[in-house]
């Protein structure tokens, strides 16, 4: 029983003490005056009576009523029912109001008189003050409070003749039951009657209509998000103008949370004075009057629900996790069915006449029923995850959160995770976890209705029926008696508040009220306490979780087959069948990804432990450990599937004998998993084991089957050996218990709790003690276990602890884990006492001791271990750890002595001559890197990676050699290597080793030769070795000095791998020498070099740092140079003459003489007719360091003028001629970009009057003169008047090459318009090059032409010939747009500026990085698809840059071809300029497309003209920061694109380009080192070759190497080379025409990159043993794998094969073998001479190029590779895109087929005639192209799938042929073929329909077949 009301209080308005306008509440009277003992008087009631503040009011308001809730310190709720009414202000009360005294007196008089006349309303300025009657109660009977307070007010207002004291006294002494569903009638002694119904059960909340109102106000979605917010501990604020609504909304929200209780701040009505409570950091549910909405707006993390407006506002920073699907959507739909039942019927044609709509109260219960079902579904099976830690004296219960989430499959679910971690759920566990207690509706629902709820899921009507049943029960709980006797309570009359009250509310007589209260108390003492015994029962557990949730285990549905594999493998291991086990192991490791297989493994292993066969031999041990590691690697730190828990007893059971007395247990090999350092895992395990032992304690020993039920299982054992195993080893939490005794721990506990009161005191004490010691012994056992798994085998490796997330962080966060702060004091003190001060192991041991101590503190305080025992544990832990460390030392020592288990022996890599090993092999695993072929990707094939082997570091390369770990691959060697110099990125990674699944350190090395080494170090490799490897690698990659590179150390004694003593001695002298050289050069050249900010090659130490920032544009010229200083005397060692003769021999000089660009003769006898001369002005590199010594300049310019011209250009790179067209005599010039005062200044300030020439102007004038000289040196511009004519430029010269429109306009306003009006407006010429943006403006004129819009002519020349304008500039200067801003074109100028947008070097660098990532991703893609590669390729923008380069180059080619000269003046003149200039020469001049010519081109344009190879390749330490920028590689890619489109125009094969691409970064040769000729001379590299032939074994130059190799093998030669004379190439440059270079993607794992020829095994001769003595080679087939074998070497093309065969046969005949080139030339010559015997017309071999050119350009592709090319000849017809006539297509096809006619195989005498024919299949089959062979000897017509197919697909016997006749095309025949090309062959069986490629060949076939028939 409980009091209905604890206190009755009268609160009135009083003045504010500080005299402000607001008043404050004053308690006038309270009853009873002294506090109840069990319930003190709550403070602060006066604030809550008027939440908006106490204020006077000008008119009399009607009385109000609401209930506020106060929570006391014990979190008991007090309900304060407040009824407020208004009374006229008495004069005394009026103090604070600011009125003058006179008014106050008047009012007092009126007030006095007014009291006598009740009906007269107050005077106009009369004020009213609030007064509040308050009832304080712990019960929540709102209606009763309303009625009772209303009654008191009515008695006062209506003046009834009833004593208020009596009423109040009766109210305070009224007792009612708390629950049980009784009905009590009460009367307060004023002729009133009220009936109070108590709810049936106390635990279900009472909601009346509040939930229904909440839904009505806010709607379903909003309430659901508030529900989730409250559950996940967010702050919720309700706003409304009505206080009653606020308290109803809060009550409704709390009712929805049942069965969880809200345990945070709960204030349904918050007074205005306490608004700062809203900024509290803890969660809350608070209601505030809507008047204070503004204050609520400032709160950043509060969810605001506006009840009046029906909105819920969630701030941006707050994320409310939704309910897990499908519960969210199901709940939503059920709620809408309950709230809007007509929704289901809204669409019916004949809706039922009436719908019975539930009353509001009933709807309220239905809504609650929906949420009750929701909780039952969320928490189903929760009782199976409870751990009974203690039963007596009070139950201690823990919840196994991880197991619960794991079995529900909701580990990732944010909502459930937060709910389970919340305070409300903790309360739920401690309250509802108790096994023996009264049960309620929720317990029944969660235990018995789960199956029904699952069955109903898809039947809305059945769900609704269930909801209504539950709602009935909830309703019955609140209203147990339907026929309630009517209340009878007096109420005041209508508008009674407006009448004048007879008097203010009277003061009650305290003594009288107190007397009534005392009377009642005395009566109660006499009466016996009416305690209704609670009915306690065992709480039902419901079906176990596994029965509820049938979800497949993760990704792999674990089929029985998989589990079978696991079982077989384990039985093989234990039966010692190691080979069988090894075969199964990969499959097992794959299967173990699934949960079921992992559990199966644990169960199987468990069986082997129980049979006491836990001691294994080394191999078995190894297998078991690998499988355990594989299981554990997928465990999260939570271990939600209980795998780690199942393995924990096993890792302490399996062991192996290392030596007598030393045993190694499995735990020492499975420590590297995050789960072991997670405190929550250990706690859950500990509580699980404690529960098992506690259960065993109470079961009769006879009942319990398990022998290990003794409690102190681990006390007597030795510490070094694992202690007791948990008795029920593998029962996962949440499963039904084992057989034997069916009772679960909860059942046992329930029984014990029932018996507890009946036991004697001693017995109770004994049980408590037993339980306590059980927990204590488990704590000791766990301290041991944890030390096993946390202490590393090698205690010096503290790495483990650093990496383990748990241990390090817990150090700082101790309080979050330790419940009592005892840990701090106790742990510290014992730690020091234990004498555990071992220096080197201290950090590891200390961390482990602290971790274990924290754990022990937490679990022992929670499970009630006595403090003495706890202290004992703290003393014990350091000893346990120390003993274990000692045990481990012996184990570690012995395990080091073990022979490593069958690790494959390290394979030594083959080294180049002169290459030395720096670091011997470190054992590593090479992991797959995202290219799928190696890992058995979409192409199938074996998984070559991961491979197990070693990484070697040599002076030249990083090499991995090893074997695949997959035993199914066989004994294949995997090699992956790259030059150290090509390393672009090295990063440390932490990866799992493929075999043991241990987390190991690794390295990922990426190289710019498109190799990636992703390696995990084997555990035997110490971290110091790995670190040494990194350091050595870094040292080799970035030598401090260029002389440290492989190419320069090769052949000298010094190698960087040794301690660099030699370098130190050698270094200084050399450095000083080079410094002096540079210094002298500076001196001689004059002061001007110092003041100018100009690029000087930095001295060796600083090589590669970027030049100063401002060097680009700032230019301060000091005094002019005297001409004398231009001939430096002491700059360089060699004398002038020697230098000159050497310079003349350089490549560029030879090329100039070939081009007729002038001779080197003295100035007196200089031939004046030559327009250009070779000037030695730069022979001492005084004018420009980065230019060659000899330059081509106009004849008319004197040497001393060049110095001034050079100042206008960046890096002093002034325009020089580098090529002249043999036909149009136009020249190509190159230079650096202009400085600010260059041509631009020249044009801008052309006509401005200048007050005296400054030096800058004089330079500009020199420059203008220089350009003028270039223009006039061109033959047809020599006379000024000749500019408007096109004399000497006849179209005969040009053939069909007509240039495109000349544009004098330098800006392009609208590229689209320009391309639209191409023929009319000539301004679109430069549009496509200038347009910026990714797609480079392909829409414009040139772009559309290049894309093949309009009918292109034979070689892709522009389509419209009418656009040659007479007004055409003599010289076009192609410059950077940014550099040529604001230039006005000047009609008098003979040159024109063409600004284009180019990319910078840094863009090339960024693009290359992305290209590398795309081609060699580094880690497997998430969803591998071809599209993802293409997408990343597109993002890299590499092909767009190549497109731009080709586009600009083609334009320059056309300009040159049309007779205009071009000066390319971009950036500093050494990157993009070089690319463009080289490409232009390659396209224009066939000489450069030969092997010799290409070498010359590279030597001239790239090496002599100073492309900065060292800087761009980051060759030295100084260049490390600038990174790798592959400008030269980009050029090679462009050449490769042209090669693809014109395969017959190049003498060299595509392999040659790859070879250069590889070796220009490899630093194997000296060719591509350093940045300019000047630097090469300075280092003595340029001319040493002549004198020093001492070391013939090492090729120092790449060209020398190519030359030697070409003599031996045709690998660099292109068999299809058949050039057309003077052919200018114009490749298509659209991105769609470009192909990804296979240099980027191909890989040969069999022997590493194929570009170091000595390392490759050479052409594969048939191995000796394959040729038995019989002599004839048998055909032995072999598998060729993509990505492993070098396909071109495994399947060489026919020509290479035949040449090889010839050499072999000649050797066998004893002749000296002929060089392949001679043999080839002979064959070609013979081929040209001989006619063809078979009457097929002209000899039309591809080699004698009779194919029209555009066919050639569209690409007969020969696949290529290191040995030459392969034999798949395919015609790329998609590129011909209908622009060619079909006849030429067939001509090309036929000629392709004849390519092989002179290389017939042995079978050739049986092939009289062959070729491709289309054949119609049998009835209803399509036409197919087949290769037909007419065989006169066998008298048959055979057909094959294709030319090289060896297997015949069908035979037509000519004996059966009756007739050959012309045919007609049938359905499905090839469309493009003339119908006369069809013929039929009629045999006795059927008619064959054939179709040839064209009419002549059809005729030929018919003739051949006829002649065959007539011969027969």
Roughly how many Å apart are the termini? 125 Å
Average pLDDT figure: 75
What is the CA-atom radius of gyration, in angstroms? Answer: 49 Å
Biggest β-sheet, characterized?
7 strands, antiparallel
> Structural class, please?
alpha+beta
Side-by-side strand order of the widest sheet: 25-24-23-22-28-27-26
DSSP strand (E) fraction?
5-15%
Number of helices: 62
Low-confidence stretches: 93-122, 547-558, 702-740, 798-841, 1053-1137, 1162-1166, 1237-1256, 1278-1366, 1585-1593, 1658-1674, 1732-1805
Give the helix proportion (percent range): 25-40%
Shape: elongated
The total beta strand count reads 44
Q: What are the defining features of this structure?
A:
7-stranded antiparallel sheet, 13% strand, 1912 residues, elongated, 44 strands, 38% helix, alpha+beta
């Amino acid at each position: 029983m409980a009091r209905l009301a604890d206190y009755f209080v009268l609160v009135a308005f009083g003045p504010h003490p500080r005299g402000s306008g607001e008043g404050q509440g004053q308690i006038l009277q309270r009853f009873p005056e002294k506090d109840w003992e069990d319930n003190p008087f709550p403070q602060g009631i006066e604030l809550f009576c008027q939440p908006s503040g106490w204020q006077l009011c000008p008119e009399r308001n009607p009385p109000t009523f609401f209930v506020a809730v106060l929570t006391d310190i014990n979190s008991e709720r007090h309900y304060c029912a407040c009824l407020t009414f208004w009374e006229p202000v008495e004069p005394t009360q009026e103090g604070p109001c600011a009125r003058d005294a006179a008014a106050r007196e008047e009012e007092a008089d009126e007030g006095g008189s007014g009291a006598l006349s009740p009906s007269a309303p107050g005077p106009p300025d009369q004020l009213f003050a609030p007064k509040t009657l308050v009832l304080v109660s712990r019960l929540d009977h709102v209606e009763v409070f309303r009625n009772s307070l209303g009654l008191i007010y009515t008695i006062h207002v209506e003046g009834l003749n009833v004593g208020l004291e009596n009423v109040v006294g009766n109210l305070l002494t009224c007792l009612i039951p708390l629950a049980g569903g009784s009905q009590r009638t009460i009367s307060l002694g004023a002729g009133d009657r009220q009936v109070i119904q108590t709810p049936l059960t106390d635990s279900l909340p009472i909601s009346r209509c509040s939930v229904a109102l909440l839904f009505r106000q806010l709607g379903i979605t909003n309430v659901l998000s508030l529900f989730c917010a409250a559950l996940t501990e967010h702050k919720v604020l309700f706003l409304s103008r009505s206080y009653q609504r606020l308290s109803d909304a809060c009550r409704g929200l709390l009712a929805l949370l049942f069965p969880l209780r809200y345990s945070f701040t709960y204030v349904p009505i918050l007074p205005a004075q306490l608004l700062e409570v809203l900024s509290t950091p803890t969660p809350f549910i608070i209601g505030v009057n809507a008047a204070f909405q503004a204050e609520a707006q400032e709160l950043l993390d509060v969810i605001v629900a506006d009840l009046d407006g029906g909105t819920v506002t969630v701030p941006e920073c707050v994320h409310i996790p939704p309910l897990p699907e499908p519960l969210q959507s199901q709940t939503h739909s059920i709620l809408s069915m309950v709230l809007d039942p007509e929704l289901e019927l809204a669409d019916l044609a004949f809706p039922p006449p009436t719908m019975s709509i539930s009353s509001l109260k009933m709807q309220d219960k239905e809504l609650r029923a929906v949420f009750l079902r929701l909780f039952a579904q969320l928490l189903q099976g929760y009782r199976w995850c409870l751990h009974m830690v203690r039963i007596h004296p009070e139950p201690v219960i823990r919840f196994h959160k991880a197991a619960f989430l794991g079995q529900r499959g909701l580990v990732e679910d944010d909502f459930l995770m937060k709910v389970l971690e919340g305070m409300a759920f903790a309360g739920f566990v401690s309250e509802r976890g108790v096994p023996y207690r009264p049960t309620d509706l929720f317990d029944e629902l969660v235990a018995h209705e789960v199956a029904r709820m699952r069955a109903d899921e898809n039947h809305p009507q059945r769900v609704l029926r269930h909801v209504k049943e539950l709602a009935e029960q909830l309703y019955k709980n609140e209203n147990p008696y339907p026929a309630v006797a009517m209340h009878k309570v007096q109420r005041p009359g209508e508008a009674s508040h407006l009448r004048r009250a007879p008097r203010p509310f009277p003061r009650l007589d305290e003594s009288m009220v107190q007397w009534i209260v005392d009377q009642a108390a005395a009566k109660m003492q006499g009466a016996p306490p009416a305690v209704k015994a609670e009915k306690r029962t065992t709480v039902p557990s419901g079906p176990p979780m596994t029965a509820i949730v049938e979800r497949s285990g993760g990704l792999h549905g674990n089929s029985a087959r998989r589990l079978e594999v696991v079982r077989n493998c384990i039985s093989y291991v234990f039966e010692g069948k190691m080979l069988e086990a090894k075969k199964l192991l990969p499959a097992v490791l794959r299967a173990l990804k699934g949960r079921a297989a992992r559990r199966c493994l644990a169960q199987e292993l468990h069986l082997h432990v129980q049979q006491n066969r836990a001691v294994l031999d080394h191999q078995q041990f190894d297998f078991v450990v690998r499988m355990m590691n594989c299981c554990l690697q997928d465990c999260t730190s939570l271990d939600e599937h209980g795998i780690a828990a199942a393995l924990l007893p096993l890792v302490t059971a399996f062991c192996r004998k290392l030596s007598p007395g030393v045993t190694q247990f499995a735990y020492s090999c499975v420590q590297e998993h995050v789960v072991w350092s997670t405190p929550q895992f250990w706690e859950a395990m500990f509580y699980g084991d404690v529960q098992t032992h506690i259960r065993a304690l109470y079961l009769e020993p006879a009942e319990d089957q398990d022998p290990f039920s003794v409690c102190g299982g681990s006390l007597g054992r030795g510490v070094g050996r694992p202690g007791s195993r948990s008795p029920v080893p593998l029962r996962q939490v949440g499963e039904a218990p084992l057989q034997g005794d069916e009772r679960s721990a909860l059942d046992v506990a329930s029984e014990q709790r029932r018996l507890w009161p009946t036991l004697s005191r001693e017995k109770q004490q004994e049980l408590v003690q037993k339980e306590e010691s059980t927990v204590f012994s488990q704590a000791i056992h766990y301290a041991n276990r944890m030390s096993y798994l946390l202490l590393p085998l090698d205690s010096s490796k503290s790495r483990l602890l650093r990496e383990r997330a748990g241990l390090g962080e817990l150090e700082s966060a101790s309080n979050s884990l330790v419940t009592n702060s005892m840990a701090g004091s106790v742990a510290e003190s014992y730690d020091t006492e234990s004498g555990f001060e071992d220096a080197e192991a201290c950090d590891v041991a200390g961390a482990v001791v602290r971790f274990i101590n924290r754990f022990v503190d937490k679990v022992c305080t929670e499970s009630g271990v006595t403090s003495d025992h706890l202290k004992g544990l703290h003393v014990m832990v350091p000893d346990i750890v120390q003993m274990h460390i000692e045990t481990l030392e012996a184990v570690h020592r012995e395990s080091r002595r073990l022979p490593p288990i069958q690790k494959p022996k390290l394979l030594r890599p083959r080294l180049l001559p002169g290459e030395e090993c720096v670091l011997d092999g470190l054992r590593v695993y090479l992991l797959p890197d995202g290219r799928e072929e190696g890992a058995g990707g979409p192409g199938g094939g074996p998984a070559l990676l991961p491979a197990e082997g070693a990484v070697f570091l040599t002076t030249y390369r990083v090499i991995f050699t090893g074997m695949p770990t997959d035993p199914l691959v066989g004994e294949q060697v995997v090699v992956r290597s790259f030059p150290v110099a090509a390393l672009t990125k090295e990063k440390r990674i932490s990866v799992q080793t493929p075999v043991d699944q241990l987390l190991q350190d690794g390295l990922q090395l990426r190289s710019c030769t498109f190799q990636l080494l992703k390696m995990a170090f084997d555990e035997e490799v110490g971290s110091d070795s790995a670190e040494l490897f990194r350091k050595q690698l870094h040292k080799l990659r970035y030598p401090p000095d260029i002389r440290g590179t492989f190419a320069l150390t090769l052949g000298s004694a010094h190698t960087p791998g040794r301690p660099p003593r030699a370098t130190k001695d050698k270094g200084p002298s050399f450095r000083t020498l080079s410094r002096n050289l540079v210094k002298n050069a500076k001196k001689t050249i004059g002061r001007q070099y110092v003041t100018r900010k100009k690029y000087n090659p930095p001295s060796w130490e600083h090589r590669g740092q970027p030049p100063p920032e401002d060097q680009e544009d700032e230019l301060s010229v000091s005094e002019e140079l005297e001409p004398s200083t231009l001939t430096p005397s002491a700059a360089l060692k060699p004398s002038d003459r020697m230098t000159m003769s050497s310079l003349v021999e350089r490549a560029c000089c030879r090329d100039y003489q070939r081009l007729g660009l002038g001779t080197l003769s003295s100035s007196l006898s200089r031939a004046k007719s030559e327009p250009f001369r070779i000037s030695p002005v730069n022979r001492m590199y005084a004018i420009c360091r980065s230019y060659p010594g000899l330059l081509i300049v106009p004849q008319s310019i004197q040497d001393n003028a060049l110095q001034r011209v050079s100042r206008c250009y960046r890096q002093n790179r002034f325009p020089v001629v580098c090529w002249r067209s043999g036909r149009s005599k136009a020249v190509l010039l190159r230079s650096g970009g202009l400085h600010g005062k260059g041509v631009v200044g020249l044009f801008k300030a052309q006509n401005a009057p200048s007050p005296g020439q400054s030096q800058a102007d004089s330079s500009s004038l020199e420059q203008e003169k220089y350009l003028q000289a270039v223009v006039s040196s061109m033959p047809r511009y020599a006379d000024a008047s000749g500019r408007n004519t096109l004399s000497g430029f006849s179209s005969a010269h040009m053939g069909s090459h007509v240039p495109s429109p000349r544009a004098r306009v330098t800006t392009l306003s609208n590229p689209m318009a320009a391309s639209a009006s191409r023929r009319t407006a000539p301004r679109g010429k430069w549009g496509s090059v200038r347009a910026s943006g990714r797609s480079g403006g392909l829409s414009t004129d040139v772009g559309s032409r290049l894309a093949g819009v309009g009918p292109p002519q034979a070689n892709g020349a522009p389509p419209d010939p009418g656009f040659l304008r007479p007004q055409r500039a003599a010289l076009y200067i192609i410059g950077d747009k940014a550099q040529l801003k604001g230039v006005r074109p000047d009609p008098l100028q003979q040159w024109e500026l063409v600004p284009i947008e180019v990319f910078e070097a840094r863009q090339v660098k960024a693009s290359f990085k992305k290209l590398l990532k795309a081609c060699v991703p580094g880690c497997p893609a998430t969803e591998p698809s071809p599209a993802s590669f293409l997408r990343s390729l597109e993002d890299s923008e590499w092909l767009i840059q190549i497109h731009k380069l080709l586009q600009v180059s083609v334009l320059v080619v056309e300009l040159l071809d049309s007779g205009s000269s071009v000066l390319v003046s971009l950036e500093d003149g050494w990157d993009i300029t070089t690319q463009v200039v080289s490409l232009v020469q390659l396209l224009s001049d066939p000489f450069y497309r030969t092997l010799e010519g290409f070498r010359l081109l590279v030597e001239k344009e790239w090496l002599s003209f100073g492309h900065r190879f060292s800087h761009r390749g980051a060759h030295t330490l100084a260049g490390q920061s600038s990174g790798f920028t592959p400008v030269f590689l980009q050029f090679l890619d462009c050449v490769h694109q042209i090669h693809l489109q014109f395969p017959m125009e190049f003498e060299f094969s595509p392999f040659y380009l790859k070879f250069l691409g590889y070796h220009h970064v490899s630093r194997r040769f000296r060719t591509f080192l350093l940045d300019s000729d000047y630097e090469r001379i300075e280092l003595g590299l340029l001319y040493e070759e002549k004198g020093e032939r001492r070391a013939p074994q090492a090729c120092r130059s790449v060209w020398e190497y190519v030359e030697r190799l070409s003599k031996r093998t045709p690998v660099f030669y292109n068999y299809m080379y058949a050039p057309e004379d003077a052919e200018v190439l114009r490749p298509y440059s659209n991105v769609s025409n470009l192909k990804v270079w296979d240099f980027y993607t191909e890989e040969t794992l069999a022997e590493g990159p194929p570009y170091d020829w000595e390392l490759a095994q050479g052409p594969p001769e048939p191995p000796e043993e394959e040729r038995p003595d019989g002599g004839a080679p048998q055909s032995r087939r072999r598998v060729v794998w993509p990505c492993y074998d070098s396909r071109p070497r495994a399947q060489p093309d026919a020509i290479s094969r035949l040449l090889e065969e010839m050499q072999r046969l000649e050797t066998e005949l004893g002749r000296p073998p002929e060089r392949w080139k001679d043999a080839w030339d002979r064959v070609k010559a013979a081929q040209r001479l001989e006619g063809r015997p078979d009457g097929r017309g002209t000899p039309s071999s591809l080699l004698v190029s009779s194919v029209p050119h555009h066919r050639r350009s569209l690409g007969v592709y020969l696949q290529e590779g290191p040995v030459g090319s392969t034999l798949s000849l395919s015609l790329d017809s998609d590129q011909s895109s209908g622009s060619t006539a079909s006849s030429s297509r067939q001509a090309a096809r036929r000629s392709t087929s004849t390519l092989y006619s002179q290389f017939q195989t042995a079978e050739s005498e049986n092939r009289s005639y062959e070729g491709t024919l289309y054949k119609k299949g049998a009835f209803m089959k399509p036409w197919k192209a087949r290769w037909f062979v007419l065989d006169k000897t066998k008298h048959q017509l055979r057909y094959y799938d294709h030319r090289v197919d060896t297997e015949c697909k069908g035979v037509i016997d000519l004996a059966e042929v009756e007739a050959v006749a012309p045919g007609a095309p049938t359905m499905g025949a090839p469309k493009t073929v003339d119908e006369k090309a069809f013929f039929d062959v009629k045999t006795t069986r059927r008619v064959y329909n054939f179709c040839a490629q064209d009419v002549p060949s059809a005729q030929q076939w018919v003739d051949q077949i006829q002649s065959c028939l007539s011969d027969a």
